[in-house]
Design a protein that fits this description.
heterodimer, A: alpha/beta, FAD/NAD(P)-binding domain, Guanine Nucleotide Dissociation Inhibitor, domain 1, Guanine Nucleotide Dissociation Inhibitor, domain 2, 3 domains, seven-stranded mixed sheet, globular, B: alpha/beta, Rossmann fold, binds guanosine-5'-triphosphate, binds magnesium ion
């Protein structure tokens, strides 16, 4: 191959595919490769054959689970926040036309041994069984304060400064109990740990508003989900890239990242051939070992995930066809929350009457599987379980010096907001200017 | 009352057999002798009128070149209602490639998908390498529609899309057609991301989910 590209992208995970799509739209000449013969990398959705190949040593999937093609099992449990950043990218790039979305039917939180709906408005807070009578009144005042906040109108501030006062001060002002703080901070602001409490309240305020406005958008939960699984997302952005001239090659083993004497990126060697480009972007798995001895990625922690096939909806969730359950760390004596994400045949990801639940958390001990037990115990009988422990990698440098730009692993958060942060971050390093979403010009004939 | 049905149609086939040219002829009634490999192909739609009561709107997907290195994403044909698998009658290898695509569709696509095998470049019949008998026999064995076309002269092009429209189930409401995104009357059943937020707070989307 003597063609030279502007950018070579390695790995077809969601982060890389969004970047590839946006770069192609921008007019860059992109070559996108993946060592696997399927799209999605670590954010793929697998059919039964692929799932058993990966987790069961190639064993054949039991026939009673149904047809292979009916399955699209996500490797990473995440939902899309209806009003979040990923939705903005989907709409602006018009990738929505390749996808169809459904709501996630319910958002729940675990408290005092029970599963309850997460209240998202003052109305719901008043009805919630999560709080006693007096706590409800306090929570109502807290939500009214948030909804009524206007930066320019000090009478709405009740003496608080979101940019200076900590979230702790805000909780104290309204006298909220620790249990209430748990569901607000973890099930609405979606923090994984309690670090946010001592920091200024503004980001927490923003996250709660994101939750409540997302909730208000479609009604049942703040989350939406693409039919046929999350793996459709990278594929859709790959199509966007291809339509704008991006070249796609799957099933390409990558032997070498070639650099020159000064360590700058030159090209990528696959099947003995070296393709040249000005820059390379890739997921961390392509940079674990380097030929020049440079350490390009480091492990920042681990996530344990258990994909569970159920033959029933999760108990105590009103028979929801899909849901998220958050187990705040404090409720089970941990430092990180445990998440449960469940989808089903309604989302075209499995056979009828099958439910796929993924239980996950950040690893804190040497026996990760034990750490997710509080989650597994909520599921009822588990038909099949596939457990994985994944290293979370982060790049050691910005890439500007050697033109090697590395994305981050998919973290333990239950949504895609940090993925979009990474996209924006990598974009800025690669292109040199912040990512501005332009509405794609569309040509629709009637 | 007149009804409009909307269906997703995908094109498959080896590079340069004329997939994009067939779409261009069908949608814009144009032909381009020096057409480049597909780049920047947007999303095309075209409507076929079956009678004064019924129209069928095709949402047409072109491969955007992803098939070139065996890298076509399964989402491309996953929920397609119909597929036109194209070969070039002057290249026998292109029929082999068409067979591969048809096997893939039979394995991975919705079982109710309507597949049409289409031998293109009929205007070059003097250089024919694929006989009508061979292609027709194969199509019959596999239960496919079959026809020959020329995107250049327009011969057979509208006809193949009309024939497909007639084969599609025009009675079933979309919800009854599991796996089909846009089958049946033209409505999407999921949530609409383009809808402005806050327009109807707390109101469930008008959908059956
Ligand atoms: N003579 C003749 N030439 C045709 C016909 N259809 C397409 N061509 C020519 O064949 C070449 C390829 O046509 P395309 O429509 O670009 O083929 P394609 O299948 O879309 O190719 P890719 O986008 O690369 O996959 C062009 O030069 C067309 O002008 C036809 O019916 N007759
Ligand atoms: Mg084409």
């Amino acid at each position: 191959m003597d063609e030279e590209y502007d950018v070579i992208v390695l790995g077809t995970g969601l982060t890389e595919c969004i970047l590839s799509g946006l770069l192609s739209v921008e007019g860059k000449k992109v070559l996108h490769m993946d060592r696997n013969d399927y799209y999605g990398g670590d954010s793929a959705s697998l059919n039964l054959t692929q799932l058993f190949r990966k987790f069961r040593d190639n064993k054949e999937a039991p026939a009673e689970l149904g047809r292979d093609r009916d399955y699209a099992v996500d490797l990473v449990p995440k939902f899309i926040i209806a009003n979040g950043e990923l939705t903005k990218i989907l709409v602006h790039t018009d990738v929505t036309r390749y996808l169809e979305f459904k709501q996630i039917a319910g958002s729940f939180v675990f408290r005092d041994g029970k599963i309850s709906k997460v209240p998202s408005t003052e109305m719901e807070a008043v009805k919630s069984p999560l709080m006693g009578l007096f706590e409800k009144r306090r929570a109502k005042k807290f939500f009214e304060f948030l909804q009524g906040w206007k930066d320019e109108d000090p009478t709405t501030h009740q003496g608080l400064d979101l940019d200076k006062d900590s979230m702790k001060a805000v909780y104290e002002k309204f006298g909220l109990e620790p249990g209430t703080q748990d569901f607000i901070g973890h099930a609405m602001a979606l923090y994984l740990d309690d670090d946010y409490i001592t920091k200024p309240a503004r980001p927490t305020y923003d996250r709660i508003i994101l939750y409540t406005t997302s909730m208000a958008r479609y009604g049942k939960s703040p989350y939406i989900y693409p039919l046929y699984g999350l793996g459709e997302l990278p594929q859709s952005f790959a199509r966007l890239s291809a339509i704008y001239g991006g070249t796609y090659m799957l099933d390409k083993p990558i032997q070498k990242i070639v650099t020159d004497a000064s360590g700058k990126f030159v090209g990528v060697t696959s099947n003995g051939e070296t393709v040249k480009a000005k820059q390379v972007i890739g997921d961390p798995s392509y940079f674990l070992k380097s030929d020049d001895g440079k350490i390009r990625v480091i492990e920042e922690g681990k996530v344990v995930r258990a994909i569970c096939i159920l033959k029933h909806p999760i108990p105590e969730t009103d028979n929801s066809d899909s849901c998220q359950i958050i187990i705040p760390q404090n409720q089970v004596g941990r430092q990180h929350d445990i998440y449960i994400a469940m989808v089903s045949a309604t989302h075209n990801v499995c056979a009828k009457d099958v439910y796929i639940a993924i239980v996950s958390t950040v690893v804190e001990t040497s026996v990760p599987e034990k750490e997710i037990l509080p989650g597994l115990n909520l599921l009822g009988p588990i038909h099949e379980k596939f457990v994985s422990i994944t290293d979370l990698y982060t790049p050691t440098s910005s890439g500007e010096a050697d033109n090697i730009f590395i994305t981050r692993s998919y973290d333990a958060t239950s949504h895609f907001e940090t993925v979009v942060d990474d996209v924006q971050d990598v974009w800025k390093r690669v292109v040199g200017t912040p990512l501005v979403l332009k509405k794609r010009e569309v040509e629709v004939q009637e | 009352m007149s009804k409009q049905f909307q269906f997703k149609l995908v094109l498959l086939g080896e590079s340069a057999v004329g997939k994009s040219s067939l779409v261009l002829r069908f949608v814009k009634d144009q032909f381009d002798d020096y057409r480049e490999s597909t780049i920047g192909a947007a999303f095309l739609t075209q409507t076929v009128t079956l009678d004064d009561q019924t129209t069928v709107k095709f949402e047409i997907w072109d491969t955007a070149g992803q098939e070139r290195y065996k890298s076509l994403a399964p989402m491309y044909y996953r929920n397609a209602n119909c597929a036109v698998v194209v070969y070039d009658i002057t290249q026998s290898a292109s029929l082999e490639k068409a067979r591969t695509w048809i096997r893939e569709l039979q394995r991975q696509a919705d079982p109710s998908i309507v597949i049409a095998l289409c031998g293109n470049k009929l205007d070059l019949a003097a250089r024919r390498q694929v006989s009508q008998e061979e292609a027709k026999k194969y199509a019959e064995e596999e239960g496919l529609m079959w026809t020959e076309t020329s995107a250049k002269t327009g011969e057979g092009v509208t006809e193949i899309f009309t024939e497909i429209a007639k084969k599609l189930p025009l009675t079933a409401p979309s919800a009854a057609r599991a796996g089909a995104r846009t089958g049946g009357p033209a409505t999407r059943t999921g949530v609409d991301l383009n809808r402005q937020s806050g327009s109807a707070p707390g109101q469930p989307d008008a959908c059956n989910c």
